Amino acid sequence: MTNFPQDIYTEPTPDTNTLGNLGPLAAMAGIWRGERGMDVNPKTYGAEHQAYIEHTELHPIDAQTNGPQLFYGLRYHTRIVKPDDVETFHDQVGHWLWEPATGTIIQTLSIPRGQTAMAVGKAAPDAKSFHLRAVRGSETNGILSNPFLEHAFRTESYDIHVTLNDDGTWSYEQETILIIPDKAEPFRHTDRNTLTKIGEPLLNPTARAAAPEALPA
User: Fold this and answer.
1) pLDDT tens-digit readout, 176-196
2) Which residues contact 217 (CB under 8 A, 6 or more apart)?
3) Distance, CA of 165 to CA of 178 (rounded, Å)
4) Chain-wide mean pLDDT for the chain?
5) Within a 13 Å sphere around the CA of 50, how many CA atoms are in the beta-carbon half?
6) 30: exposed, middle or buried (Cβ count in 10 Å: 0-12, 13-18, 19+)
7) End-to-end CA distance of the chain
8) What are the b/e assignments for 64-100, b being 16+ CB within 10 Å?
9) Residue 135: what pLDDT?
10) Contact 199, 182 (CB under 8 A)
11) Would you say 100 and 72 are in contact if contact means Cβ atoms under 8 Å apart?
12) How far is CA 26 from CA 43, 77, 98, 116, 173, in A?
């Protein structure tokens, strides 16, 4: 059983500096571009390999509490296109959250095809890599899909492995297991990319308010 405190109401006083309290997520804060993406997705004839270009922004949010529980996090938006194309190939929003007290990392994600998920993992504060997982049917790290997706492309699990590279880039590999009615075996839908920083993150509101340059002369 999880050892939760008896007092579930009293909130801690968080630090206003979210960027200084993100643990392993700190290296992901900012604006990023990846030009070597590869998506393997299902088609009637089998697997399609699709190259993609990615733009993603991750900006710190003010600390969040659930009674005594304390999260620091990043709000993100990812937009993906095919090379030489303007139409959005994939759009995704959500949060990356770090709980210092337990070493828990959470990724929430939502895509505009009627699907949302929450993946959970553990890591040390100075970790250079970590793994998160969501599983269909779980009440704590689950996956929800609209009725058509549940019928035609049922998502059984979602895994993401993140690596923070020494050159300042970061990489991910994702695997989504799909059950498709006309496929004899589960389909491994995979995505991978390496992201290079092209811009700095915006400070969270309370950090901006506390910054000396934000104070009146």
Assistant:
1) 999 999 999 999 999 999 999
2) none
3) 30
4) 95
5) 22
6) buried
7) 53
8) eeeeebbbbbbbbebebbbeeeeeeebebebbbbbbe
9) 98
10) no
11) yes
12) 37, 16, 10, 24, 19
Give me the half-sphere count of Cα atoms (radius 13 Å) on the Cβ side of residue 37: 26
Chain length of the chain: 217
pLDDT in tens, 89-126: 999 999 999 999 999 999 999 999 999 999 999 999 99
- The percent of residues above 70 in pLDDT, for the chain, comes to 96
Q: What is the pLDDT of residue 164?
A: 98
As a dihedral over the C-alpha atoms of residue 78, residue 79, residue 83, residue 86, rounded to 10 degrees, the angle is -170
User: What mean pLDDT do residues 74-97 have?
Assistant: 97
Q: State both tokens at 52.
A: 């993609």
pTM: 0.94
Q: What gap in Å lies between CA 178 and CA 109, rounded to an integer? A: 17
In sequence order, what are the residues at sequence separation of 6 or more whose Cβ sits closer than 8 angstroms to the Cβ of residue 177? 155, 156, 157, 158, 186, 187, 188, 189
The one-letter amino acid code at 147 reads P
Q: Which of 137, 97, 141 is nearest to 118 (CA)?
A: 141
Helix H segments across 46-193?
147-152
